[in-house]
């Protein structure tokens, strides 16, 4: 009777485990690429091998503890070595390890084969956003977190994709081999999309390679997977995978936009245009440190609102934004923002939150300054 | 010499008979075991590398 009970408990426990392991909420995703599926099946294979080993080893242990307990008069055996048994328990793990290593190595080999790609994307990690550049296409943009700060501060209910949404996702074609080249402009980040089984470190001064071939159109989400500072949890990855035709149309449109952005540097910008653009740039990039209302977080992050010394020194203001301040957290933006955004954000800072200098900085001036440096 | 090689192989594997261990300690010189161990470790590295090269093909 008791044996039957024990058996029943074990069966229920194992069935429960299996249900949990297969439910996608608990387990890693199967994903939408051949590689992600083989990673998933490797994971499950190794998981079940571990389960069997665990059940056999602990089963034998608990059975012996129970069956040969001292109150039943069991006597411990005293012996020093048993070569056969030792060989036996060394050989079995060896065989199991080899059995797991063979398929795992085959999958790794495939993952590392980045040759013959149809499309190359350079992914650069920044504190704290991703930059995507379609190599050879002249299309490059930043992908910023788009979750409103009210949700982050707990002042508004969080939506479904809280902290997993961006202003501009990476757009990729399906059924094409896409090669990712990852690197970083500052500290080590890691570009991770579980549905592709791609996770690659982005390191300053190095270029790492990875690839994927997405099989289903859709939106896939991931995160930075390497602790990279204060807003590490605020630089998600969003990939929008679409059919080749749609992708081509999208890319053509982006190229068009890039061309017209270049034109717009040369024209004369009005104050309200610059203010509108500057507010956008400020809230996505500068507010993380200088705060939403320009009040800063002294003494680390200086206030910009009511900063009279700064308002009196336009040259310094432009210089700091272009070149950063070395040895501090203030980054140089000459390489990461375009002249329009730089001119706009400086104009904004000089005319918002009670700053009333009336200065209008033209993108063409910034452009001239950048090319003379 | 064969005895030494067998003992080094047993050490690689991690299991050795007590009787053989005793006789090794009574008869052999340590330097012989150490030298054989180093040479065989190099041979093993070579083997692993060539298996890896074959697999990478
Ligand atoms: Cu990061």
Automatic annotation (TrEMBL), chain A:
<dbReference type="GO" id="GO:0016491">
    <property type="term" value="F:oxidoreductase activity"/>
</dbReference>
<dbReference type="InterPro" id="IPR011759">
    <property type="entry name" value="Cyt_c_oxidase_su2_TM_dom"/>
</dbReference>
<protein>
    <recommendedName>
        <fullName>Cytochrome c oxidase subunit 2</fullName>
        <ecNumber>7.1.1.9</ecNumber>
    </recommendedName>
</protein>
<dbReference type="Pfam" id="PF13442">
    <property type="entry name" value="Cytochrome_CBB3"/>
</dbReference>
<feature type="domain" description="Cytochrome oxidase subunit II transmembrane region profile">
    <location>
        <begin position="20"/>
        <end position="115"/>
    </location>
</feature>
<dbReference type="InterPro" id="IPR036257">
    <property type="entry name" value="Cyt_c_oxidase_su2_TM_sf"/>
</dbReference>
<keyword id="KW-1133">Transmembrane helix</keyword>
<keyword id="KW-0472">Membrane</keyword>
<dbReference type="GO" id="GO:0020037">
    <property type="term" value="F:heme binding"/>
</dbReference>
<dbReference type="InterPro" id="IPR036909">
    <property type="entry name" value="Cyt_c-like_dom_sf"/>
</dbReference>
<comment type="function">
    <text>Subunits I and II form the functional core of the enzyme complex. Electrons originating in cytochrome c are transferred via heme a and Cu(A) to the binuclear center formed by heme a3 and Cu(B).</text>
</comment>
<dbReference type="Pfam" id="PF00116">
    <property type="entry name" value="COX2"/>
</dbReference>
<dbReference type="GO" id="GO:0005886">
    <property type="term" value="C:plasma membrane"/>
</dbReference>
<keyword id="KW-0479">Metal-binding</keyword>
<dbReference type="GO" id="GO:0042773">
    <property type="term" value="P:ATP synthesis coupled electron transport"/>
</dbReference>
<feature type="domain" description="Cytochrome oxidase subunit II copper A binding">
    <location>
        <begin position="116"/>
        <end position="253"/>
    </location>
</feature>
<dbReference type="GO" id="GO:0005507">
    <property type="term" value="F:copper ion binding"/>
</dbReference>
<keyword id="KW-0812">Transmembrane</keyword>
<keyword id="KW-0813">Transport</keyword>
<keyword id="KW-0249">Electron transport</keyword>
<dbReference type="InterPro" id="IPR045187">
    <property type="entry name" value="CcO_II"/>
</dbReference>
<dbReference type="InterPro" id="IPR002429">
    <property type="entry name" value="CcO_II-like_C"/>
</dbReference>
UniProtKB/TrEMBL annotation, chain B:
<keyword id="KW-0472">Membrane</keyword>
<dbReference type="Pfam" id="PF11174">
    <property type="entry name" value="DUF2970"/>
</dbReference>
<dbReference type="InterPro" id="IPR021344">
    <property type="entry name" value="DUF2970"/>
</dbReference>
<keyword id="KW-1133">Transmembrane helix</keyword>
<feature type="transmembrane region" description="Helical">
    <location>
        <begin position="31"/>
        <end position="56"/>
    </location>
</feature>
<protein>
    <recommendedName>
        <fullName>DUF2970 domain-containing protein</fullName>
    </recommendedName>
</protein>
<keyword id="KW-0812">Transmembrane</keyword>
